[in-house]
């Protein structure tokens, strides 16, 4: 007792109320932290699912685009095959293949040129146009349908990797040194590399003045 006045502590009810209030605030703070963690976890999962959906949609898009491109190509090829003009009968040599031979000789400024062996023959077999010996015999062995363009003289030189045209034979071209001339079966021919070879032909290419 001081100065005759008794100091009183908090009423029992008030103490219980204050303690209960503090406990509830602490519980709310803890619950709030749990909710935050749960919210963050949910956001991460949602973002992960969203990214997975985006990747899946992109994959579906590219697969669909590829299918459209391939399908369009197949349709275009089918349309071309159906609508392309038929090969005229006049340029078809045979529908059952051929096995022909033509003899070729080349003379440059009076010098006979060697025609190599095994032109068009390699490890994978032989081309339809080829040689076996150095005798100048050109073999034309085609299965199935054969067109005129298949047996142009130019194709033999392409396979041989040598130059031949109305202007040049090998490295010799028309000029002061001489001119290119071609004879087929002893008659001068003016088709040069575009000549369509026939069975039994004797072809002579000459470069001279």
Short description:
The chain has 2 domains: 13-84; 90-208, Ferric Hydroxamate Uptake Protein, Chain A, domain 1 (Beta Complex).
Characterize the structure shown.
Helices cover 38% and strands 24% of the residues. With 209 residues, the chain is of the alpha+beta class. The chain is elongated, with a radius of gyration of 47 Å. Strands 2, 3, 6, 7, 11, 12 and 13 form a 7-stranded mixed sheet that branches. Strands 1-8 form a two-stranded antiparallel ribbon. A two-stranded antiparallel sheet has the order 4-5. The termini are far apart. A hairpin with a 2-residue loop joins β9 (168-169) and β10. It folds into 2 domains: 13-84; 90-208, Ferric Hydroxamate Uptake Protein, Chain A, domain 1 (Beta Complex).
């Amino acid at each position: 007792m001081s100065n005759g006045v008794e100091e009183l502590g908090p009423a029992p009810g008030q103490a219980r109320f204050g303690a209960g209030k503090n406990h509830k605030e602490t519980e709310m703070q803890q619950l709030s932290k749990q909710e935050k963690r749960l919210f963050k976890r949910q956001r991460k999962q949602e973002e992960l699912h969203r990214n997975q959906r985006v990747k899946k949609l992109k994959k579906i898009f590219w697969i669909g685009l590829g299918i459209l491109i391939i399908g369009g190509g197949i349709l275009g090829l089918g349309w071309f095959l159906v609508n392309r003009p038929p090969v005229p009968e006049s340029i078809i040599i045979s529908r059952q293949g051929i096995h022909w031979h033509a003899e070729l000789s080349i003379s440059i400024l009076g010098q006979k040129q060697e025609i190599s062996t095994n032109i068009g023959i390699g490890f994978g077999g032989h081309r339809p146009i080829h040689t076996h010996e150095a005798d100048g015999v050109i073999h034309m062995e085609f299965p199935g349908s054969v067109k005129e363009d298949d047996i142009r003289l130019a194709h033999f030189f392409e396979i041989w990797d040598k130059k031949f045209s109305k202007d040049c034979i090998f490295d010799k071209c028309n000029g002061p040194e001489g001119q290119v001339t071609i004879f087929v079966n002893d008659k001068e021919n003016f088709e040069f590399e575009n000549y369509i070879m026939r069975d039994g032909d004797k072809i002579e290419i000459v470069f001279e003045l």
